[in-house]
Design a protein that fits this description.
Radius of gyration: 19 Å
Largest sheet: 7 strands, mixed
Structural class: alpha/beta
Number of helices: 9
Strand content: 15-25%
Distance between the termini: 42 Å
Order of helices and strands: HEHHEHEEHEEHEEHEEEEHEEH
Strand order of the largest sheet: 1-2-3-7-12-11-13
Number of strands: 14
Helix content: 25-40%
Length: 271
């Protein structure tokens, strides 16, 4: 990602690019800000310019809920990356390329995520909990893939797509994985939020309900808003709308989490 010329060569003959590379370790990013900035911001710029120079037709960048109202460096670099991909549609000239972004919460069972971590720690008889009030959005790997494909097929350029997904309470995850374990409250760590957010009230002026997804459109899109609304039957969300994992209307339960663990993480899982 940091070598634009190499990326230009790699993009030769490529029609579609899915940009999923990033320095994603929150605490390493706080410790090594230069490396995080070079990869997540400089790398994003390289992807954009290499795509513009290589005949690529469609670019979808993967983002994160931590880019919404960020309180840590990782989230801030991803917010900047999102802005770069959205605005790339304004600098393409007559090039027909489209740039869009997808943003979602924790991918269930992904490397370093809470469920595999708890499954590993439960043999010690206790699970570390940062805060008993903590909530997170939850999406399966297939759900994330489906969303990327939706953006590839339907983006007009400049959208940030956000899924309608359930939340979970961290205490329910602990109960689902290891009800026999004691919970050890270790306190919230630097750069962490109690609840994650994917749409802020300030975003509500540009956020549209597409049915299965929300989308945040650019404040000045390079296409007709009315044509977009008609094409996708999109509806503007209420002013002040906020999509927050703690205020969600859709929640995973202990039982549903156990079923999801068997489906997406470990088919042999048993309590």
């Amino acid at each position: 990602m940091r070598d634009k010329e190499r990326m230009v060569r790699a993009f030769q003959g490529v029609d579609d690019v899915i940009h999923a590379a990033a320095m994603k370790h929150l605490y390493l990013a706080e410790y090594n800000p230069d490396e995080c900035i070079k990869t997540n911001i400089g790398g994003a710029q390289n992807v954009i310019h290499a795509a513009l120079e290589s005949g690529v037709e469609n670019v979808v960048a993967l983002s994160t809920d931590k880019a919404c109202a960020p309180i840590n460096l990782y989230g801030t670099t991803k917010l900047t990356s999102d802005k770069l991909f959205v605005v790339a549609n304004n600098i393409k000239g007559t090039n027909p390329i489209k740039f869009s972004v997808v943003s979602y919460g924790n991918v269930m069972g992904s490397n370093g995520s809470v469920i595999p971590f708890f499954m590993h720690k439960k043999k010690e008889g206790k699970l570390p909990i940062t805060d008993i009030s903590m909530t997170r959005f939850n999406i399966s790997l297939q759900g994330g893939v489906d969303m990327v494909m939706h953006a590839m097929e339907h983006a007009w350029g400049g959208e940030i797509f956000i899924p309608k997904i359930p939340s979970y309470k961290i205490t329910d995850v602990a109960q689902a994985v290891a009800p026999e374990c004691k919970l050890e409250i270790v306190g919230i760590r630097s750069g962490e939020k109690i609840h994650e957010e994917m749409i802020t009230p300030s975003d509500s002026f540009y956020t549209y309900d597409l049915g299965k997804y929300y989308t945040i459109l650019p404040s000045v899109p390079n296409f007709s808003i009315q044509e977009f609304l008609t094409k996708f039957n999109a509806k503007l969300v209420p002013v002040g709308f906020n999509y927050n994992s703690g205020h969600n209307t859709d929640w995973e339960t202990v039982d549903s989490l156990r079923n999801l663990i068997m489906e997406h993480v470990n088919s042999t899982f048993k309590v």
